[in-house]
């Protein structure tokens, strides 16, 4: 039996906690010998979303097969949030020194840093907190804009939903990719995203504007990403002239509709290549006639 112990901090983000907890709970349902428990320095822990979580105030004795996960908490600044006593930090430190694995989601990386577990190791956190994490722990190697990192039994992930990717990766390491895929299907998520995939996708990065016409054009491009879409067709579908489409789209996103479609294709192709596809097959699957254009975009 492997114990997965969540160390909870006041202001814990519910999805930072519930995402990995769902993964390991599903592993238990599959009979993989997983037992979940929740500990904190008080019997009740207020979450960032208002729900109060109950936890065991006693820190358990663990074996090297057990796993500690520190979910993130609401933090405008790491330096003024996430209270943990030296006893809890000693517990984290001792578990790793004995050969155990420790993991964090989002701001939880700061707890590992306070325990001295980030020094000399690769780590990551939510993109809003990366600068502060780097300044607080100058001996750590903060890897920017990735989903998760693994370095000598210290596993850190970016914000919120990336904790699911981290947990699926840990299931894969211990129980194999088939088990992780079964859990992912149960949860209706990607089978497993690679740790070095970007935190902010093209979809999110260029959707922060408020122009409804451009949003409708983006909807068409995203739905028909593999099609050859002409500017004339986008103009017809949006009810604007070609010149207006180009002007509005460039002002809202910083690129032309064609460049946006290429960026979507490139991101999807990188995902496919990261999961074992060849450059040639990935190019065909995302709508390129051959791999030459994909190679040029990747080089650019």
Automatic annotation (TrEMBL):
<dbReference type="InterPro" id="IPR052158">
    <property type="entry name" value="INH-QAR"/>
</dbReference>
<keyword id="KW-0805">Transcription regulation</keyword>
<feature type="domain" description="HTH araC/xylS-type">
    <location>
        <begin position="215"/>
        <end position="300"/>
    </location>
</feature>
<dbReference type="InterPro" id="IPR018060">
    <property type="entry name" value="HTH_AraC"/>
</dbReference>
<dbReference type="InterPro" id="IPR009057">
    <property type="entry name" value="Homeodomain-like_sf"/>
</dbReference>
<dbReference type="InterPro" id="IPR002818">
    <property type="entry name" value="DJ-1/PfpI"/>
</dbReference>
<dbReference type="InterPro" id="IPR029062">
    <property type="entry name" value="Class_I_gatase-like"/>
</dbReference>
<dbReference type="Pfam" id="PF01965">
    <property type="entry name" value="DJ-1_PfpI"/>
</dbReference>
<dbReference type="Pfam" id="PF12833">
    <property type="entry name" value="HTH_18"/>
</dbReference>
<keyword id="KW-0804">Transcription</keyword>
<protein>
    <submittedName>
        <fullName>HTH-type transcriptional regulator CdhR</fullName>
    </submittedName>
</protein>
